[in-house]
Specification:
- Two copies of one chain form a homodimer.
- Chain A is mostly helical and 332 residues long.
- Chain A has a single domain, classed as Farnesyl Diphosphate Synthase.
- Helix content of chain A is 70%, strand content 1%.
- Chain A contains 16 helices and two strands.
- In chain A, strands 1-2 form a two-stranded antiparallel sheet.
- In chain A, strand 1 and strand 2 form a beta hairpin.
- In chain A, helix 4 runs antiparallel to helix 8.
- The longest helix of chain A is centred in the middle third of the chain and has 28 residues.
- Chain A is globular and about 60 Å long.
- The interface between A and B is large, with 43 and 43 residues.
Chain lengths: 332, 332
């Protein structure tokens, strides 16, 4: 279960949802880079490396679109979006260290180039600067949410690490992907609405919009682990399952085939038998379980789109619609 | 250059400066422990282990004494002090991981018991919950200072990691110990004054009080690395120098003996020659350089004590005086 990548997943110019905030995204990136201005040159170089790896900046785009749509002061939207993206970057740095990943989408991870101590501290530094930026938004309830979300993300990772591997319930899966991914999307759109003069109803609509596309985003990520372009993903197909991490397509398969011997082996640690799991991955790929999971992701996106009815028609609303649809249409 | 320990440095009951806030310290500890209430049992066990390792709770004591002296609402002082101590604990968890330390004052470190990934994430979790607590103090300027201080601490560690080892200037040394230790003491007393109805002058007096005792605390730590009780410190004498970390006693020695061949070797990486460095440690121990450094720590404490003149006489002021004096009197 990878989490949205640091790296360029598609050509930025081709992604229509970014166009209303192209200039603002540059401000966000400047703001992020400037966090290392007074630090050692090696740290500045590390942040440059992480930033140049690019990515679509889905989260800042979400924050800026919601903020602009609801007439939030630009400075606040930019600062908040930079805080969110820096927090996301920090979690990826520690994730890669923990997983021992040397590549993320074809680019060297920080820990592939640096020692573990330097990587731990760089992640810590990014967390700290993300908190500084969040505080600079000057909005106490937002700051509380920001800290709570960081705690939710880390707690989710710890729970995933401590919890027994193998078969999990759907409920457990939803909790896990909320902590891992949807919580930050939710924070982003909710926070951007909070710093606007939006009504409580609008803040709630935007919170749910972020939550729904965040859940869809992770479900699609987990589907792509089974049927994505292996070269682009950079990992063997089904690598989650090979690591004992059971995601939605596998949960559907287990529900439909409760007597499958490989499924039955999961609670007893059967996922450690690579040969059997390779067979299970093939069986899941041959089944309709990925499509079933995709239906669920599409339902999340539909719920998100319904939430946009609360907003006046405007270019930002159109872009949010494109962004939501992109989440399920992407191939990587 | 170790940083104040997690562990019981002396019998709590014997330390007079704690007595006015004994009950409040318990509230702080409860508040810290409760941060893992909704987490996995393994994480709760880890926090229990870290907390039971004890320590004198110098930072929360400082925060509570200043807060009570200036009539801060108790709930705020307790929350803030818990935030500070949890932040301190988080930095120690990552420090020990980075140093590969298996013991801190005779007790197993977290990384001695757990895998590096679990240790990284536990540190992250403690950072996150420290930020949650800091936000719960409900004071935006304080939250900004809190995040800035976290960034200062981590940036200091990164700078120390990246910077060339060996001889440094006194100025460089002061910057390093400010980032490492004094910044958190400064935050503690300043923040406790900020959440009171104290005047700007009083906030500044308390900020400087914390700064001065924090600088003294680290200077004394660095002296104890040369002449402390080796069993209690749990490291060979002069271990900082053996690791290429030049602290105040060594800086004085280098100033007085610029032609000493071991001193001359430092900028060229001479600290990697254990035999020569053992000789240098012995020469520094035989010199008056530790005493010179102690004079400097005492001057810091004197400046701190002067700051207390801004306060009315009260039990908390007396306790702050004892705390400041304890910093230079301690033997471990």
């Amino acid at each position: 279960m990878r989490r949205g990548s640091l790296h360029g997943e598609t050509d930025l110019s081709a992604v229509s949802f970014i166009s209303p905030v192209t200039e603002e995204i540059k401000l966000v990136e400047e703001r992020m880079r400037s966090q290392a201005d007074e630090s050692h040159s090696d740290l500045r170089a590390a942040l440059d490396h992480l930033m140049s790896a690019g990515g679509k900046r889905v989260r800042p785009t979400l924050g800026l679109l919601v903020g602009n749509m609801l007439s939030a002061p630009l400075e606040r939207s930019v600062t908040f979006s930079a805080a969110v993206e820096l927090l996301h970057t920090a979690t990826l740095v520690h994730d890669d260290l923990i997983d021992g990943a040397l590549l993320r989408r074809g680019m060297a991870t920080l820990n592939a180039r640096w020692s573990p101590p330097a990587t731990v501290l760089t992640g810590d530094f990014l967390f700290a600067r993300a908190a500084v930026l969040a505080a600079e938004v000057d909005h106490l309830p937002l700051m509380k949410l920001f800290s709570e979300t960081l705690a939710t993300i880390v707690n989710g990772e710890l729970t995933q690490m401590f919890a027994s591997r193998g078969l999990v319930s759907r409920e457990n899966y939803y909790k896990r992907i909320y902590a891992k991914t949807a919580s930050l999307f939710e924070l982003t759109s909710r926070g951007a609405a909070m710093v606007s003069d939006a009504s409580a109803d609008m803040v709630e609509a935007m919170r749910d919009f972020g939550y729904q596309i965040g859940m869809a985003f992770q479900i699609v990520d987990d589907i792509l682990d089974f049927n994505g372009d292996q070269n682009a993903v950079g990992k063997p197909l089904g690598s989650d399952l090979l690591n004992g991490l059971v995601t939605l397509p596998a949960i559907y398969y287990a529900e439909i085939n409760p007597d499958d011997m490989d499924v039955l082996s999961l609670p007893q640690g059967g996922w450690t038998h690579t040969e059997n799991m390779t067979r299970l991955v093939e069986n899941i790929r041959a089944s309709s379980c990925a499509q079933k999971a995709m239906v669920e992701a599409e339902q999340c996106v539909d719920r998100a789109l319904t939430r946009l009815n609360a907003c006046e028609k405007c270019p930002e609303r159109d872009a949010l619609e494109s962004l939501a649809k992109y989440i399920v249409d992407r191939r990587i």
